[in-house]
Write a structure and sequence with these properties.
single chain, alpha+beta, 3-stranded antiparallel sheet, 6 helices, 11 strands, elongated
């Protein structure tokens, strides 16, 4: 028996209130790295309202998965374009069937094999996520893959060790043991705190230049 869209909608009640069901992060290194990825991108895109960042948040992608409690939550994922608003989880069938455009997993001893094998296949074959990266905050292992046709192909790094993300229109690379964003000009995307310090330094430099010209800067 076929169902009309209205009948199907009636049989599939609102699932937007599904809570995330993810384990705690492995270590403070993982917490710091995740916070860094979120805060830097939100600062860079502070004038945009067309994206959603999931941080250690469950993705519900099928009713069968929900029934089996077979949940999958990437450490970091990006969906765009979509409405920027708070969500308790990402429910694919409540989001017009949208899956993440980009996923980053933070490797740990307990998850590395799953992230490199099972999750890579899931994101490639089921999610069809265009880009998948993984990074270990402990060993600094870093890899990236882009979906070409039916399979992931590795994103090679440039001479500076940076890997380009088409989804972000940014590079990803390691600096001081952390995975960071870099612009197309290879400039570091700062944290909000770093940006504030840079702004203060520029203001102080300008004030010094004005004083050298005999001009007292406004207070």
């Amino acid at each position: 028996m076929s169902l009309t869209p209205q009948q199907l909608e009636f049989l599939m009640p609102d699932a937007t209130q599904l809570e995330s069901d993810e384990p705690e992060m492995e270590s403070t290194l993982h917490y710091v790295q995740l916070a860094l990825l979120v805060s830097c991108l939100e600062w860079l895109w502070r004038d945009r309202n067309d994206y959603f960042i999931g941080a250690n948040l469950t993705i519900y992608f099928s009713r069968q998965q929900l029934k089996n409690r077979d949940f999958r939550g990437p450490d970091f994922f990006l969906v765009t374009p979509t409405q920027k608003r708070p969500r308790k989880s990402w429910v694919v069938w409540e989001e017009n069937g949208k899956y993440p455009n980009l996923i980053i997993e933070l490797l740990s001893d307990s998850t590395a094999t799953v992230d490199r094998e099972f999750k890579k296949n899931l994101y490639q074959n089921e999610f069809r996520t265009p880009e998948y990266f993984w990074f270990s905050p402990e060993s600094l292992e870093f890899a990236g893959f882009r979906l070409l046709g039916q399979r992931y192909l590795e994103i090679t790094s440039n001479e500076a060790g940076l890997r380009w993300s088409e989804s972000l229109n940014l590079y990803l690379g390691i600096l001081d043991g952390k995975l960071r964003y870099f612009t197309a000009e290879r400039e570091l995307v700062p944290t909000p705190e770093e940006a504030a310090i840079q702004a203060q330094q520029r203001a102080e430099q300008l004030a010094a230049q004005l004083r050298a010209l005999g001009v007292e800067p406004d207070a």
